[in-house]
């Protein structure tokens, strides 16, 4: 039996996780759909070449937009995947492995994506 | 009381089946999970392809031209359906969580989600496929 304090902190983590999904989801509706509309509807996908990216990222606000989208989408997706893994991967050892792979991959790609957005010239 | 009986009947599952029969709500749940995982997997791929712009802009352009071919355009239309459904169904979940009145209209809300997903995605999908439809695809 887990001590009462750690149980409460677990509950509070899950409450925050639930709340985060609602708030990040609401923000992502705008960020993700706007991003898709700009790169697929307003402009054709073949027009979004390196010159297009350079012109857009010339404005730091678009970098901030893209980074916010990257961070929120990854965290929102990762938390959703965590819930799914808990639902379907029942063996504790396997669950730990699957989570380790998913978290590591996401963490590395988050760092890589952040690096790309920040250092692009 | 009758509403409670109906819920109990609709969530009954047999001993051999582990799938709970929640009807529309269950399908919304499955759709939300599947669309979420698909969008997440695309996001991972998308980080890699966009980051090429830093390493080698020319390679970025070459890889990016691939997104213009018809197979990947169809893939983008699929991504759009998943994204729009996930966004709208997510709004439905938020509504049901925060507004008690929305729970009673849960089925009608799901109907609106499906209708709006199609209403947004079909015309937008047409725009994405337009270069192929008009035969101007390089």
Please explain how this structure is put together.
The complex is a heterodimer of chains A (about 120) and B (about 140). Chain A has helices spanning about 5-40, 50-55, 60-90, 90-120. With about 120 residues, chain A is an all-alpha fold. Chain A has a single domain (about 5-120), classed as Fumarate reductase/succinate dehydrogenase, transmembrane subunit (3 helical TM bundles of succinate and fumarate reductases). In chain A, helix 1 crosses helix 3 and helix 3 (about 60-90) packs antiparallel against helix 4 (about 90-120). The mean pLDDT of chain A is about 95. Chain B is an all-alpha fold. The termini of chain B are far apart. The model of chain B is unreliable at about 1-10 (pLDDT under 50). The interface between A and B is large, with 37 and 39 residues.
Query: Could you say which overall geometry of chain A the principal axes of the C-alpha atoms support?
Result: elongated
Rounded to the nearest angstrom, the radius of gyration of chain A is: 18 Å
How large is the share of residues in beta strands of chain A? under 5%
Question: Shape of chain B from CA axes?
Answer: elongated
Number of domains of chain B: 1
Average the pLDDT over all residues of chain A and give the rounded result: 93
Low-confidence stretches of chain A: none
**Helical/strand content category of chain B:** mainly alpha
The main sheet of chain A comes to: none
Distance between the termini of chain A: 55 Å
